UniProtKB/TrEMBL annotation, chains A, B:
CDD domains membership: DRE_TIM_LeuA3
Catalytic activity: pyruvate + acetyl-CoA + H2O = (3R)-citramalate + CoA + H(+)
Pathway noted in the entry: Amino-acid biosynthesis; L-isoleucine biosynthesis; 2-oxobutanoate from pyruvate: step 1/3
Keywords: Acyltransferase, Amino-acid biosynthesis, Branched-chain amino acid biosynthesis, Isoleucine biosynthesis, Transferase
GO molecular function: (R)-citramalate synthase activity; 2-isopropylmalate synthase activity
The organism's place on the tree of life at top rank: Bacteria
InterPro entries tied to this protein: 2-isopropylmalate_synth_dimer (IPR013709), AIPM/Hcit_synth_CS (IPR002034), Aldolase_TIM (IPR013785), Citramal_synthase (IPR005675), LeuA/HCS_post-cat (IPR054691), LeuA_allosteric_dom_sf (IPR036230), PYR_CT (IPR000891)
Family, similarity comment: Belongs to the alpha-IPM synthase/homocitrate synthase family.
Pfam family, one: LeuA_dimer
Enzyme type, top EC level: transferase
Name of protein: Citramalate synthase
Matches recorded under PROSITE patterns: AIPM_HOMOCIT_SYNTH_1, PYR_CT
GO terms for biological process, alphabetical: isoleucine biosynthetic process; L-leucine biosynthetic process
């Protein structure tokens, strides 16, 4: 990727050799609508970030919430490598000596390795929001930083709204930086608090600041309100900042913070600036991203660059045949570098080459060739099913069962005799009642179960597993994690076929299955049936001969 | 926002006055994992894009799938303003005269206003993926463009993998562009097909191409694999391209295409380049984004810049009090410019004004004021319902009924006594059977009907209308035209709440309604109930007094 700057002559002038990573997932990221980390979550994330090798881990705002106080309390004995814990706060309140400021003293008592405080650098914020004079603000910045420097080796100053402030009153914005610098701030962090900036102006502003304070270490703190937080951060590095602040997966208020999951591989693999992340650590990137999603109880962003499930997924048939000729023809980096992998999606646009590569992954020893009849049969079967509305790109488990069938490597574990679903609602304001009965044959034996449910699909799911769990106790551990319904054609409205996509888990693995029918309950049954069969196949449970006469 | 270039002296040199918008949601966007548009969806999206004012609407690839062929067939009689329909394809296959190329002739026969074909511009792709000589590729590009120009006023050439190609073999990449230009291509679109590029190199490469072909119109087609598709597109405009290709909400293969929902407001409001979108059209941006999410049956990206639900959401007391003092202290643009709104999570202000305006539209003579208790009640009710998963964006009829209720201007036409739905499947290969019985009270009279159906929702729809049609013969003319199901939370899988969206028609009008429940059948019933009530209200059918004691 060295070509990236081949056409960018002046790019290497200001580019630093090394950039520090500053993670604020636990502070700014905790502001995200819908995210609320427990103290336990915060500890696990902090330790995981330290393991990954982030330099600075901002843990929270002492005094802002009991949760943050408890977190810092419990983090006092930590055994991290080079990672350092940072406590966040603001410049002292006006009207008293900084030594008396409760906020600052909480930082000092937090047990953190470093402090990061924000101060106003946009004149109108000082006068309108804080309601103090510009001079008073300069004094607060300078004295707050100086006081903290008596207690911390390292103090960071976040210049809030710096880019807006610089545009509105360049001279004052620079005075605020000077005040913090002269008081001993180690790094001045330029914050695009409202997220309204775009890369070229960011580059130019940072360049001007560096000219003004040539020996001062700078940082960037970007927000994603223009979908440019990553680009703005990289532009600032290109202009010479030595610290990048961001969050895992770009979580954060409004549109989020700069996404470290993209910034790290771009800096290390493309811009060739060292973030102190080793190749081994970089291969943990995808799993770090997933871990934080789990902690945040958040659906993964499947299309997320570098670490997302679809980041290296290929659908178009032309692409796939080319990929098999030469990987990097259609991949901007090797997915393994960030611990991700190439995925080949099956779809109506996909040719036999997609399916062949899937079959080869499934049965490497079979040594299948393009012209193998098994491939032809699988392709035909898939096209038939896709014509009726099946889509396998989101249903790997159903697809694998289908391939096993076409390779006659599949044995049914049970056979449906009948299901009945009853759904009743009495009166406009009454809750409905759902009941399902399921009868299946397992090895010649009839099993019959009934269950109530929160809706008919839930009732059917419960009844089906109740009917099977005695024969297959492994199903006890299995549960559904996701359930999607898609109506396929708008032609006949309520007569339209529906596609039900189900994701299941047994705690260790996750797999997804699909069912299609004009009857939403039959579609759900088919997806449930595959989900259970796949679990039994994965567990290597033998199928009773009687099912497969 | 004029300040944006205050520190970016050379930025205005190459900046064009005007940029054309080229939407490929229906072509490249249709490659997105998990998205499969029906022909009906594609038509509705295309018409909505034309309404919004996009210049070029790429509808698909004639010949690639029966779906795309049907789409172009059905789009032959369209009545758009300035928007033009584009058909996508590739340069001719090697080995025969271009006039005989089936792909090119399909484009010519498609009835589109313009053609866009891609060709290889990365030398290794020509030799390895295509397996032909570099000269042969130049001939294919030149002859394909020339042949299409005999049949289309406008032909676009997508230079596939241009940035990688330029880095690998600058001279050849430029030769490909020359070949297309000399053959008459109207715009040469530089494609970052693998999405591996970043803004500064993109700017520099585009600048070099412009120096090489000063009189040639250029375009940019970016992918989001570095989370920089928007930044790369804006960088290219800054370097002088006059066309930007992208998709609504950035849907697209892998990590997606450049997101027009961000690019449009950035260009018009910040970079000050005219995209031909009027202020009125720009205020439709958020609703266009939501509409495409509904069509794609896709969970909205709540943190999406500009148009997302949280894009202008404010937490935290400091922010809120400051916002009250001066909005733009914490907002990079006025959300109303893009049809979004400020959400102050601690107050009830949000949404109030637009609900007032809707109420005023509904009841002009009522002369409602901001402080009218009716408004407060409507706001409260809407917030309650939205908290349970209702979304009225796609369901105007349900929304109007809700407002009528809050103004006590609504009289029920019937009351549900009970519904029962039976669904049974006997054996793995048997079709299921669905039966519904519905009992309603109309003016003190009990009506009871039963119906079989193609699936339980269809059975319920038939039974409900059978029970009502004698009392309300107007329902005879009513039928459902669309039916969508969305699962709202994945937390409890099959226990999750579902939202059913129904579109109805009576031949003259179309209206849509919504229902939410953990029981998919109850959700469907609620949407059906509203659909019928709305039809009766529109027809001015009086409600029997007995229903409204």
């Amino acid at each position: 990727m060295a070509y990236l700057f081949k056409y960018d002559s002046d790019a290497l002038m200001a580019l630093p050799k090394h950039v520090d990573l500053f993670d604020t997932t636990l502070r700014d990221g905790a502001q995200t609508a819908g995210i609320s980390f427990s103290v336990e979550d915060k500890k696990r994330i902090a330790n995981r970030l330290a393991e990954f090798g982030v330099h600075w881990i901002e843990g929270g705002w002492p005094g802002a919430s009991p949760k943050d106080d408890l977190f810092f309390e419990q983090m006092r004995e930590r055994s991290w490598g080079r990672s350092k814990l940072v406590a966040f706060g603001s410049t002292a309140r006006p009207g008293h000596a900084v030594e008396k400021d409760r906020g600052l003293n909480r930082l000092i008592g937090s047990g953190a390795d470093a402090a990061c405080i924000f101060g106003k650098s946009w004149d109108v914020h000082v006068t309108k929001a804080l309601g103090i004079t510009l001079e008073e603000n300069l004094r607060l910045v300078s004295e707050s930083v100086a006081y903290l420097k008596q207690h911390f080796d390292t103090v960071f100053f976040d210049a809030e709204h710096f880019f807006d402030g610089f545009a509105a009153n360049e001279r004052y914005a620079l005075q605020v930086l000077e005040a913090a610098a002269e008081a001993g701030a180690d790094t001045l962090v330029l914050c695009d608090t409202n997220g309204g900036s775009i890369p070229f102006p960011v580059f130019d502003v940072v360049t001007r600041v560096k000219k003004h304070l040539p020996d001062q270490a700078l940082g960037i703190h970007a927000h994603n309100d223009c979908e440019m937080a990553v680009a703005n951060s990289v532009a600032a590095v290109r202009a010479g900042v030595q610290q990048v602040q961001g969050t895992v997966n770009g979580v954060g208020e409004r549109c989020g913070n700069a996404n470290l999951m993209s910034i790290i591989p771009i800096l290390q693999l493309k811009v060739k600036v060292d973030c102190g992340v080793s190749p081994e650590q970089l291969r943990q990137l995808s799993s770090l991203s997933q871990f934080v999603n789990e902690m945040a109880n958040r659906l993964p962003w499947q299309h997320q660059p570098f670490v997302g499930q679809n980041a290296f997924a290929h659908k178009g048939g032309i692409h796939v045949s080319a990929i098999r000729k030469q990987r990097d023809l259609y991949e901007h980096i090797d997915p393994l570098l960030v611990g991700n992998e190439q995925r080949v999606l099956v779809s109506d646009q996909a040719g036999r080459s997609n399916i062949l590569s899937k079959l080869q992954k499934l049965e490497p020893e079979a040594g299948l060739a393009d012209d193998d009849p098994v491939v032809a049969e699988a392709v035909t079967r898939i096209k038939e099913l896709e014509a009726t509305g099946y889509a396998f790109e989101g249903a790997d488990a159903s697809f694998q069962l289908l391939l096993r069938r076409s390779m006659s490597r599949f044995q049914r574990h049970f056979e449906l005799v009948r299901f009945r679903v009853y759904d009743e609602k009495r009166g406009h304001h009454e809750d409905p009642e759902s009941e399902a009965t399921v009868q299946v044959r397992v090895g010649g034996e009839l099993k019959h179960a009934a269950a109530l449910g929160n809706g008919p699909v839930n009732a059917m799911d419960r009844a089906l597993r109740a009917a099977l769990v005695h024969a297959y106790p492994g199903l006890e551990a299995m549960f559904l994690t996701d359930f999607k319904v898609r109506v396929l054609t708008t032609r006949e409205a309520t007569e339209a076929a529906v596609r039900v996509l189900i994701e299941s888990s047994d705690g260790k693995r996750k797999w997804s299955t699909v069912g299609v029918s004009t009857d939403v309950l039959e579609a759900a049954y088919r997806a449930l049936n595959d989900a259970i069969e796949y679990k039994l196949v994965m567990d290597g449970v033998a199928a009773p001969a009687a099912e497969n006469r």
